[in-house]
Amino acid sequence: MFEKSGIGMTNNFSANNIQTSLPKSMKAMVMDVAGKPLVSKTLPIPLPAADQVLIKIIACGVCRTDLHIMDSELPDPKLPLIPGHEIIGTVVQTGSGAANFKTGDLVGVPWVGYTCGYCKYCLREQENLCENALFTGYTIDGGYAEYTVAFQKYCFHLSPQYGSPSSAPLLCAGLIGYRSYKMIQPHAKQLGFYGFGAAAHILIQIALHQGKEIYAFTRDGDIGAQAFATGLGATWAGDSGVTPPSKLDAAIIFAPVGDLVTKALKDIDKGCSVICAGIHMSDIPSFPYQLLWEERLVRSVANLTRKDGDDFFDLASEIQLKTETRLFPLQEANEALAALRKGEIHGAAVLVM
Ligand SMILES: [Zn+2]
Ligand SMILES: [Zn+2]
């Protein structure tokens, strides 16, 4: 259960696209230092730069990456930091050069918040690897707040069907899951998902739509997650240490557990891939070359490109993707993060402003 915040908004727009009735301050959940709970603060509403928009946030998803940042598993965050990189909101003000958007537009903001456009990676269509990238809710402020600014280059126009909090997880769990899925070989039919959380519960809908079979691996004994997976159409679900009933054509690892890489290599067939979808993982244990032999592949997936986003939202509209979410009020961000850490969330946790 949650309550809406009491900030009053009107539709009073001035001629230069600035909402005159914006409040002066906003509530935000802030990480002052890593390793400590987030602190509720009242902060000035940020001003958009020329190529940015100001967004009134509807909801922001809670991602495992937020835990990695808070646990110092990702280095050098902006401090103090407003976390959160699965933002759904409405544009309430546009910078002088942010001509792609107007007030009232529904937008989504993902993990990648900025890329330079001129480094060697940007120039060869690998902007997901940009040397000068900025990351939402990590190296720039994110969505655990009532308002945020975002570079227009990395705001996605969303159709009205995505205006509810349940759409927030599409912005990372959906997008990164989709990029991981694009890395499997075209012939792959039987897919293993290792960790059945926010990303897997979205991706299974795409995979089933495209005729794949899903084998879901969960924490040992997590009957609830296994039932969740089979309820969504998984062919099989079981503990991560168990050998699946048939050889897999691809494995996508969502859980941040390095041991799963060697386990997945044992589960896949010759010439198939293990895709590591997470941004952080515990060490991968050494393993005999025999596991990699016969042209098995192991690769990671990093960040996303704007094309991933465009392709994903096209597909999402075609399939009518659904998410299972547990909603928390913004002020309960710490509780949401704790529930995610304990594996208590089936689907995705979302903060609602
Ligand atoms: Zn994420
Ligand atoms: Zn770049």
Describe the protein in words.
This protein is of the alpha/beta class and 353 residues long. The chain folds into 2 domains: 25-169 and 324-352, Medium-chain alcohol dehydrogenases, catalytic domain (Quinone Oxidoreductase, Chain A, domain 1), CATH 3.90.180.10; 175-300, NAD(P)-binding Rossmann-like Domain (Rossmann fold, 3-Layer(aba) Sandwich), CATH 3.40.50. The chain has helices at 64-70, 120-123, 173-182, 198-209, 223-231, 259-267, 306-319, 333-341; strands at 25-30, 39-44, 52-62, 87-94, 106-109, 112-114, 134-135, 147-151, 156-157, 190-194, 213-218, 236-239, 248-253, 268-276, 297-300, 325-329, 348-352. The protein is globular. Mean pLDDT is 93; it is low at 1-16. The structure holds zinc ion (2 copies).
Number of helices: 8
Strand content: 25-35%
Q: Which architecture of the largest domain does the CATH hierarchy give at level 2? A: Alpha-Beta Complex
Mean pLDDT across residues? 93
Low-confidence spans: 1-16
CATH superfamily of the largest domain: Medium-chain alcohol dehydrogenases, catalytic domain
Compounds present?
zinc ion
Radius of gyration based on Cα positions = 20 Å
Tally of separate domains? 2
Which structural class fits the helix and strand makeup?
Answer: alpha/beta
Helix content: 10-25%
**Mind describing the biggest β-sheet?**
7 strands, mixed
